[in-house]
Amino acid sequence: MIRKRYTVILKGKTDYSKFLGKLASSGIKILSITHEGSTVRFTTDRRGISFIRKNRRRYGVKAKFVPAGNDTVESRLFSSYRFLIVCAIPLVASLFLWRVEIETERPEVAERIESKLLASSIVTMKPLSSLPDEGEIRQLLMADDPELSWVRFSRSGTRLTIIPMMSPRTDEKVVKEGPPANLVARTGGVITNFQLSRGERASRVHQTVKKGDILATGILEQGNKTTVVGADGFVFADYWSEYNFTLPRQIDLQLLGEETVEFQWRWPIKVADNKYSFQSILKTNRYREDIAYQLELTEGMEETVLLPLLKHKIISESSPSLTIKDENILHVSFQDDKVSGTILFLVNDNIAVKRPISQGD
Length: 361
Description:
Blueprint: E1 5-11, H1 17-25, E2 31-36, E3 39-45, H2 46-55, E4 62-67, H3 73-78, H4 81-93, E5 96-97, E6 99-102, H5 107-119, E7 126-127, H6 134-142, E8 148-156, E9 159-166, H7 172-177, E10 181-185, E11 189-198, E12 200-201, E13 208-209, E14 214-217, E15 219-222, E16 225-228, E17 232-248, E18 250-255, E19 260-265, E20 269-272, E21 275-278, E22 282-287, E23 291-296, H8 302-317, E24 323-334, E25 338-350, E26 352-356
């Protein structure tokens, strides 16, 4: 780094009085001159350095030049371009996603989540500013995955941790105590997925079934031998469900506040228990304050407010495996202090129920 002033060190047995007099008569700045033995030290500017270099051989002077204030380790360190580059590297690196972790004990769930993240380009080395918000990522991961009841996120610096919450499983002990049964449809729909732990499929994916149709049989046939084992598991299907609702005109809502990110600079060297370690020079603090308010439902809010409220209510009150794929508003009425109506939802859920197998007397 170029500085305006330099320290000049003159050494040797030469008489420097004539040389210093020449500098003074030429209008060269000479500051803080000291004399120690055979060494003369003073401070000058770049014009003085140029003059000394041109005339030192004429006067037989041996000179050494040092940028002023560059004698200490700290000054040499902070005046170096290399130090600035080293400090800039963690700053630039903190703007990218470096690690994506999935905390689950089920490898198949982690594999499904990884494939969905890869398909949506949520991968390492992606700028943090281009990542979707948590709601969009959660909707992406939970779509067409009835095993997930919720997805939590933990973000620390350049690391994103995804924590999938699994839907509760049915108690197998209760099933074993009951009589062998087939799985039949409790309602009509189009089958999308089978998750059987026992039994054999009696229908296929994309098949349209109606209420009472056998989805999985608990009777296994091999040659002339028939074994009754019972069927157990889930059969998911898409079907339309009519939902009638009545809500007050005034509802209490809680809105997620805008997240505020605060950046603070800190010293890259950390000292703890007389031990030195390196840390990021950029510290990130995140704050969010939720807002509670009261909303009055009016005409025109059917798509923007009413549908999201009813969707959230249905999902929170129904089985964890239920997902809503589409909706169709049939009727909405705004009265004095109430809002009522009927909406048709296209949902995906487990439609299998058990029907005991008749084994005669």
